[in-house]
Design a protein that fits this description.
The complex is a heterodimer of chains A (about 250) and B (about 270). By secondary structure, chain A is an alpha/beta fold. In chain A, helix 2 links the parallel strand 1 and strand 2. In chain A, helix 3 packs parallel to helix 4. The radius of gyration of chain A is 19 Å and the shape is elongated. Chain B is built from twelve helices and no strands. Chain B has about 270 residues and is mainly α. In chain B, about 75% of the residues lie in helices and about 0% in strands. The chains are: A alpha/beta (about 250), B mainly alpha (about 270). At the A-B interface, helix 3 and strand 7 of A face helix 11 of B.
Chain lengths: ~250, ~270
């Protein structure tokens, strides 16, 4: 039994990447091209809200690479001694509001999110996307053309605080929520067919930056470095851009 | 006298399993000091989640009994075509990942779901409501009740109801005054299992009902939410859940009718 366990834990060519849920499409694509280049390499992903990943790393999860959806949580990981070297920003992202194609609440502009009865879904405050969404709502409330009680009324319309940003997208995609705040990169072609998008004005938008770093005590440092280098390389950046991210620098 | 090797193997198996099962509970219990535990447990968010959990899980248990008892009666006493299929259908939620249950519930009873239009005509929109929490719990908890109740009802010998019938009892009288009292231990045990399962429900709830304090955030959801930024609060909530579940299941063992728990068919006492 121990032998089997040891074999499971000791796959030399296995790379374990802990990445923010919003990165799942782009990183899966990146993994495909890396695995094609090196058939021996096997990349395992753990996609979740960045805050969950930090928690898992803190409890000794066997990860090689950590890619966070915001600097704040990367900082937490660094301060807890979980990171080796300096994290590098590899992508940026901005928030948009999506509504189901049928638009059941007849949202025509961002002001309509404050109307009574709108079912709004946000990511939980501990999730970067949820943190940014609240910030964006507060900024909108201070903008011209928005009532002063905008943020109070919008937040009163929240029917669910989801555990990660992809769950927000799927609740809107399924037509169960009237509106949700997600990253522009979450509006993948598949999602885009089922939702309508409203861009936030630049003054209200919060720019999320995504840092990536090597995890301390990584078991597969070499493959981890290859992965990070590829993400930062022009080909990696091209995949990210294709998936709706903005370049890291 | 068993050979030594058998005894060693047995003890090793028991010890390993006890470690896997008991150590996590113990670790939760000893993590916080009693003072800190009390402080965490009196936070409004904890009390709100506790209240909602008790409210929804008790509503679920009542519903499960009302809807499950007729099905258990059918399965225990009647032969009909499609019985095996019905039995399997009723058991599926036990093995289904709760998140899958949640997606299924959304696609069925969500406002864009198959039955969404019909529900809307009745003025009901389920997702993101407390009622959705109950529906999710009913989905996952019902099988636990039905299998215990079916086993209990099937274990009662026919001659008791037949004797009642020859003495002029109606079928309803026979069920409520003869069959049900005899099978009561199993029915109560099934109810307690369903209650405990409903109390612990997470995946179907967060998928179908969402996560909003006071409306859909039950204790397990509150644990998950707290875990993301406040480990102590999450541990405190977990301790409460462990104690609650343990009490329900332990109560089951020590209840006057507890002897029947564990599969032994109920036997009538006296005459």
């Amino acid at each position: 039994m121990w032998l089997v366990l040891a074999l499971l834990l000791q796959q030399p060519k296995h790379l374990s990447v802990y990445a923010a849920a919003s990165l799942s499409d782009a990183f899966n694509e990146i993994a495909d091209s890396l695995e094609r280049r090196d058939p021996e390499l096997k990349i395992d992903f753990n996609f979740a809200g960045s805050q969950v990943l930090v928690l898992q790393l803190g409890q000794g999860a066997a990860a090689d690479v950590f890619a966070s959806a915001d600097d704040r949580l990367m900082k937490v990981a660094q301060d807890s001694g979980l990171i080796e070297g300096t994290p590098q920003t590899f992508a940026r992202n901005r928030l948009v509001v999506i509504v189901p194609k049928g638009n059941p609440a007849r949202i025509g502009k961002l002001q309509d999110l404050a109307r009574t009865g709108v079912k709004l879904v946000l990511a939980a405050d501990a999730v970067p996307a949820g943190h940014y969404a609240r910030e964006a709502i507060f900024r909108l409330a201070r903008s011209a053309g928005y009532p002063p009680d905008y943020s109070r009324r919008v937040l009163a319309n929240v029917v669910s605080y989801e555990e990660n940003v992809r769950s927000v997208a799927s609740k809107v995609q399924l037509g169960e929520a009237d509106a949700g705040f997600v990253y522009i990169s979450d509006v993948t072609p598949a999602v885009g067919r089922q939702v309508r998008r409203f861009d936030l004005p630049d003054t209200a938008n919060v720019m999320a930056s995504y840092p990536i770093a090597l995890v301390r005590h990584a078991r597969n440092t070499e493959a981890a470095k290859t992965f990070i280098d590829f993400v930062l390389s022009p080909s990696g950046q091209a995949v990210l851009t294709k998936n709706g991210f903005l370049p890291g620098r | 006298m068993k050979p030594l090797v058998v005894r060693v193997a047995l003890s090793a198996a028991v010890a390993t399993l006890l470690c896997i099962l008991a150590l996590p509970m113990v670790s939760l219990l000893v993590r916080l000091s009693p003072g800190e535990l009390l402080h965490q447990l009196t936070q409004p968010v904890v009390l709100t989640a506790l209240g909602l959990s008790l409210e929804t899980s008790i509503a679920t248990t009542v519903l499960v009994i009302l809807l499950g008892l007729p099905v258990a009666y059918l399965l225990a006493t009647k032969e009909f075509t499609g019985k095996r299929v019905l039995q399997t259908l009723v058991e599926i939620p036990i093995v289904l990942p709760p998140t899958v249950a949640g997606v299924g519930l959304l696609l069925a009873f969500g406002r864009a779901g198959l039955a969404g239009g019909a529900l809307k005509a009745l003025g009901i929109e389920l997702p993101f409501t407390t009622l959705a929490v109950v529906v999710a719990q009913v989905f996952v908890a019902t099988p636990f009740f039905i299998s215990a109740a079916t086993a209990g009802l099937a274990g009662i010998e026919r001659r008791y109801t037949e004797a009642a019938a020859t003495l002029g009892a109606t079928p309803g009288y026979g069920f409520f005054r003869v069959l049900l009292p005899l099978a009561l231990p199993s029915v109560l045990a099934g109810s307690a299992m369903a209650w405990a399962r409903a109390l612990g429900e997470f995946g179907a709830t967060i998928t179908f009902a969402g996560n909003l304090p006071g409306r859909t955030q039950t204790m397990p959801l509150a644990v998950y939410t707290a875990l993301q930024n406040d480990l102590s609060a999450a541990v405190a909530l977990s301790v409460l859940l462990v104690i609650l579940s343990f009490t329900i299941l332990l109560g089951l063992r020590f209840a006057p009718w507890g002897a029947a728990v564990g599969g032994a068919p109920a036997r009538p006492r006296g005459r």
